[in-house]
Each structure stands twice: as C-alpha cells, then as structure tokens.
Design goal:
Layout lengths: L11 H10 L4 E7 L5 H14 L3 E5 L10 H12 L4 H12 L4 E5 L2 H7 L1 H10 L4 E3 L9 H10 L2 E3 L1 E2 L5 H10 L4 E4 L15 H9 L6 E4 L5 H8 L4 E4 L1 H8 L4 H19 L4
Parallel strand pairs: 1-2, 1-9, 2-3, 3-4, 4-5, 6-7, 7-8, 8-9
Helix pairs in contact: 2-4, 2-12, 6-7, 10-12, 11-12
Length: 274
C-alpha cells in the first residue's frame, strides 16, 4: 500500500464546499467492500465516480449490521463469504482514491477496535482515505478515535437523527469534522418510495448548531428524490439503491454499468435548479 501525502487526499469537506460553490448538493454513494467481489466492487465504485458521485462511502462488512436494512445486509453477507477483511477494505479505498474522489469508510466501531484505532487511522490515511463514518459510535465514547483522527488528519462524521435532542445535536456536531450525517428516518437503511417528511426540519436543527455541511441519507433511490433532498440539504447520500443495482445484475460488469447509470441519474438530480 503506497502512503499518500496530505496533498494527495481529497477531503470530504472540500468536496462539499466545491459543490456549494457550484450551486448544488454533493452526491454521496455507498457500496460495501468485497461486494459482489473485490474487483466487482472497485469497478462499480469507479463507474459511480465517473458518472458523478462526489464522495464515496466504502462499507466495512460486519457480521452484526444492526442499523442496515435487508439489501445491505445481503451484500455484507456476500462480502464476508468472499473473505473480505479490513485490509481488503483499505485496498478498495486506495483503488478508488486514485480517481481524486473523497473516500470515507463507513463502519461499525468494533472492527476498528479489533484492528487497533491508531493503526486503522494511519492505514486509512496512507490508503488515501479522508475519514470515517461511525453510525454506532457517539462522541461521548469516541475519545480514542477523536485523538487518532486528529493525528492522522481525518474527517470524523457522526450521525444525528430525528430523535436527537437539540443538545445532542450540538454535542455531536461539535465533534464532527468535514460534514454531518443526518439520518432522515428512524429505523434501518433502505431505499423508500418517498423521502422523509421530517428531514428538512432536522437539517435546519443541525444548521442552527454548526456551519458544517449536512448530508441527508436513508431512502433515496432516484433522481427526483435526489433533487428533492438537494433543495434543502448540502449532500444527498445513497446506499441501498446502489447495492440493489449490483445485487440484481446478471454479471459484475452489468452491475457496474447499472450503478453508473443510477449515479448519472442522481447526479442530474442534485444539479437541478429549485
């Protein structure tokens, strides 16, 4: 793995700022590493970036994905059956970061603890990753990660939800760096027919607590929904819909092409004028 210098790594916050300067939202796309295979995942992610994904979330497959819906659970199980390990996730980060996209890892906290917090932070930075999204880690319990991320110059993206109190939002966003992940619905991940009606209010609550960009995730599956969220949020986060494109494809090549087509539709959506 080739070490990357700070100049080589694109920060997610920088990408959000560039998108804002262009008068649009950033598009954030997710796939689990190792799904449908190592090569298939990299091919799909590269197709997504080429079609307009600005920020890439690479999932670290985990055996107990309590916050993930059925689509992502199936993908993570396949990745684990393929033998995907943390080092393979980092290899995936390195392959995608070469495009110049901002690349983060999204992971439950236990795999990072098992790998070693400081070791993980250093390896992620060396691979060209810009940060970590930690859905089951709250800042109150993140002292080791906050220290390691600061030392490695990594973005720290914590989640807020509609159930978060104003005080919890203030505490959480104070420890974020790069941007804030607003989970727009209660429950597990998954594409939905309609986006959350309470998401705009959540975004406003977050903006009252921080100047950091706010990305909205959970439920987006098409360009119209992306355009709707882009009208009030700084970023549109899409996961399950990309996974489904790959999952339902007849081959890995077809899956990568399908993921690219969806990315193009979503990229057009975040660029619509409102």
């Amino acid at each position: 793995m080739n070490a990357a210098t700070a100049r080589d790594v694109t920060s997610s916050g920088e990408v959000y700022r560039t998108a804002r300067a262009e008068g649009r939202a950033a598009l954030v796309g997710y796939l689990p590493a190792g799904f449908p295979s190592y090569d298939g995942c990299v091919a799909a992610l590269l197709a997504m970036v080429a079609a307009g994904v600005d920020v890439v979330e690479i999932g670290l497959p985990y055996s107990d994905p309590v916050l993930d819906g059925p689509t992502i659970q199936v993908a993570a199980e396949q990745a684990l059956r393929n033998g995907t390990r943390t080092v393979d996730v980092l290899r995936t980060v390195e392959a995608v970061a070469r495009t110049g996209a901002a690349v983060l890892v999204m992971t439950y906290w236990n795999p990072v603890l098992q790998f070693g917090v400081e070791r993980f932070a250093t390896a992620l930075r060396d691979a060209g990753g810009c940060g970590l999204i930690t859905p089951d880690l709250i800042p109150d319990e993140a002292a080791d990660w906050l220290s390691a991320a600061e030392s490695a110059d990594l973005d720290r993206v914590f989640l807020v939800a509609p159930s978060s109190s104003d005080e919890r939002i203030r505490q959480t966003t104070a420890e974020c760096r790069g941007w804030v992940y607003a989970a727009s619905t209660m429950g597990v991940t998954g594409a939905r027919a309609q986006t959350s009606a309470i998401a705009p209010a959540l975004v406003e609550r977050v903006r009252s607590a921080t100047d950091l960009p706010v990305g909205v995730g959970l439920g987006v599956s098409n360009g119209s929904q992306a355009a709707e969220i882009a009208s009030y949020a700084d970023g549109v986060i899409v996961g399950s819909a990309f996974v489904r494109q790959v999952l339902e494809a007849d081959s890995e090549n077809a899956g990568a092409a399908a993921a690219g087509r969806l990315a193009a539709e979503l990229a057009e959506g975040v660029r619509r004028q409102h």
